[in-house]
Design goal:
The complex is a heterodimer of chains A (about 130) and B (about 130). Chain A has about 130 residues and is an all-alpha fold. Chain A is built from five helices and no strands. The longest helix of chain B has about 30 residues. The chains are: A mainly alpha (about 130), B mainly alpha (about 130).
């Protein structure tokens, strides 16, 4: 007996699956991971270089264009990756009615932290 | 009938109580745990940046907390978590290219992740302490 297709021709053509997101989650998690490899290595190396630096030295360092840009890129990739990773953890372990609330809280938290960190970085860069 | 059957608790798979931990399964859950730990570290990063943006007093308070005995212990743990997740993540990216799935390769890359994370963590702290002089 031939297997009957369980998906409509339109669904197969669009190729986004039952969640209607396709491979978006998987792909963005990988792209942000690749971005985070050099960005986290830069961050760790910079922090090592600034062990016990005083406030003025650190502010001048973060205020240079390259470091401001890298710190902002780090936070964009970091919180995007964090939101995607925590989403899977929540989906795997939270099964009660709280799942939706926890997911929304986590997503809003990641977005808020990214915005807060980026604005703090910009304030340091522009001496706000 | 079906409702009665649904009420009976079914055994969960994998049954982690009777499974002997293996490098593969341990590194799998370690990647997830370190991811959650690093999420918490990301909050600290933002608090630290906000403190720096707020002025010298706030920055000094944040640095005081971070460079305390407890703060540095936590930071050491976070450094190890970062390198475990970073090396484990690179291992996953290699797997995404459909390479390294033979049992020997799985164990070789697994032990490489453990070794590289230990070496990088110790090297980072040794370098930091040496520069601090």
């Amino acid at each position: 007996m031939d297997r009957l297709p369980t998906r409509s021709p339109l669904a197969r053509a669009i190729g986004l699956g039952s969640a209607k997101e396709g491979v978006e989650h998987w792909w963005v998690e990988r792209v942000s991971a690749v971005a985070l490899v050099p960005l986290t290595l830069w961050f760790v190396a910079s922090i090592i270089g600034h062990t016990y630096s005083d406030y003025a030295t650190f502010i001048v360092w973060l205020g240079t264009p390259i470091n401001t840009i890298l710190m902002i890129l780090l936070q964009v990739a970091l919180f995007r990756h964090t939101a995607l990773g925590l989403q899977v953890v929540i989906e795997d372990y939270v099964h009660s009615g709280a799942k939706f609330a926890v997911l929304v809280t986590m997503r809003l938290g990641c977005f808020s932290l990214a915005i807060a960190g980026i604005i703090a970085t910009l304030r340091i860069a522009f001496g706000g | 009938m079906s409702s009665l059957r649904a009420k009976r608790p079914r055994p969960l798979s994998p049954n982690i109580q009777i499974y002997r931990p293996q490098l593969t399964s341990v590194l799998s859950i370690v990647n997830r745990i370190t991811g959650v730990v690093l999420s918490a570290s990301a909050v600290v990063l933002v608090v630290w940046l906000i403190a720096a943006a707020s002025g010298p007093e706030a920055y000094a308070a944040a640095q005081g907390a971070i460079t305390s005995w407890i703060g540095e212990s936590v930071l050491f743990g976070c450094t190890f978590a970062l390198f475990l997740h970073l090396c484990g993540g690179i291992r996953h990216l290699v797997w995404d290219t459909v390479h390294g799935f033979e049992l020997g390769s799985i164990y070789a890359s697994g032990w490489a992740v453990v070794a590289a994370s230990l070496v990088l963590t110790v090297a980072a702290w040794a370098l930091s302490l040496a520069l601090a002089g």
